[in-house]
Amino acid sequence: MVDQARIRVALFKNEHHPTISEQILIDPRMEKEELLNLCSEKLGIRAKKIFNEAGVLLNSFGNLSDGAHLYISQGENFQVAISESNQAKQSKKYVIAMLGAAAVGKSAVTMRYVSNKFVRDYDPTIENYYTKTTQIEGEPTVISILDTAGMEDYYPLIDDWIDKKDGFVLVYSVDVPDSLNRLKYFHEKILHRYSHQGNKGPVIVMAANKVDLPTRNISAEEGRKFAENLGVRHIEVSAATSAGIDEVFASIVKELRSRRIVDRPSKKEPWYKKCTLL
What we know:
This is KHA domain-containing protein. By secondary structure, this protein is α/β, with parallel strands linked by helices.
């Protein structure tokens, strides 16, 4: 297969409320059996059917777009909650990437937001997609989150991680002093990638994790000043207690929506309202 023809898709088990996914690269021209074999290997199931987000059974994949979500069945019919499926079709999906050094809690923050669970011990993966359907300011919202590894061995993948994203969460841990300064690298990579978009680029938020700890090596003031120098919002969070977690993701969506409203063309006054009566 030709690499340039490949697209990235997220695989979910065909469950009522699927959250955890496996990300793979596929060629849309591939045969159904070949993709079923890949799905079986990635999800650890015997894949027999492939559905899209609307619950449509797929036999070919030429119309799939990059970032598509696929739901994999072992033979049963589409199980995803209908309300979530309708919300996915009616609302814009926001794609957000988590970036930061290793062991700062990127996965813990992600899992707390997606499933409201605190995962203390997490087996790190290179990258993984999660999804959540929620309400933000009363509007149905679908958020797709790319959780990434923080080990420097995987830094060559950063260009792929930051491509085609609506927002970024730069995570550091208040008990790991160097984790704050390491965010400069990720921030510079994002700015370089989206320099041509100006104010229409992705929204970046900085999250100070583990603020529940009794002692900290990075003060709140240090974090705020660092974020101010980068020109991004700073939010203190705790994956353990859930403090600030919802605010991180909601703030990104709200900012993106506010830009959409500002960019919306205003209605011009009819010419006759501009006339002055003599």
